[in-house]
């Protein structure tokens, strides 16, 4: 377990300033319930390929806004200052990350329930931090989505460790929320491998495709591993915190430096 007192003493001043200057015991931001994911209507052309995109490090960066929103919610709801240092983030689901944080401070695990005030506070802080947007879309992300959309038998969807509302906030901030037909989100499965199973089942239900006609696009070894676990193809892009060499050792079906190489991506997709 974490040492609550020492952590609070070390981070309280900085966290309070970053989270809006409120003292630890102050009233949190006004919150509203998360919205349902609004899926884009499917077209009438039979689907031949479903692209399942990761969000952070693959499509966009938010300069640590998600980490900060969780830290601010912890301060609001429990009076604890913690910058999440030492908790792995890349390729993991939001509930797993928050679970590690709660265990560090011996907090009741029912607090990570998606209906809890803690998550509502996280969402409220995330909306504030992303208005105006922090970070930006990664090179080639927008053009790649457009290129894939030109193929009438291909569908763009999401496979992300973000919980549903966090994904919506991030994608909407950069105007691409409605570019995806459906998604599988971090609040829908206990880990990323199980979440990939949710994604390919949803692809079968909505698009009539088998797992081998699904392509996971992500920036970590976890994305490649979850694709393998679900029977899907894997495209790795070296735009996150994992080096190209490390990604290559995972043996993805296609490895790109970034999404500006949309020609290689689309040619490979047509070859399947």
Primary descriptors:
42% helix, 272 residues, single chain, six-stranded parallel β-sheet, alpha/beta, two-stranded antiparallel sheet, disordered N terminus, Rossmann fold
Main sheet: which strands, in order across? Answer: 5-4-1-6-7-8
CATH class descriptor of the domain at 49-62 and 136-271? Alpha Beta
Please name the fourth-level CATH homologous superfamily of the domain at 49-62 and 136-271: HAD superfamily/HAD-like
Number of strands: 8
Mean pLDDT: 88
Q: What is the chain-wise order of helices and strands?
A: HEEHHHEHEHEHEHEHEH
Q: What composes the largest sheet?
A: 6 strands, parallel
Query: What's the helix count?
Result: 10
* Fraction in beta strands: 5-15%
The class by helix and strand makeup works out as alpha/beta
How would you describe the overall organization of this protein?
Helix 2 crosses helix 4 (117-129) and helix 7 crosses helix 8 (221-230). The protein has 272 residues and is α/β, with parallel strands linked by helices. The protein is globular and about 55 Å long. It is built from ten helices and eight strands. Mean pLDDT is 88; it is low at 1-12 and 21-42. The chain has helices at 4-18, 65-78, 94-104, 117-129, 141-149, 164-173, 192-207, 221-230, 244-249, 262-271, and strands spanning 49-53, 60-61, 136-137, 154-159, 183-184, 214-218, 233-237, 254-256. A six-stranded parallel β-sheet has the order 5-4-1-6-7-8, sandwiched between helices. The chain has a domain at 49-62 and 136-271: Rossmann fold, CATH 3.40.50. The longest helix is centred in the last third of the chain and has 16 residues, at 192-207.
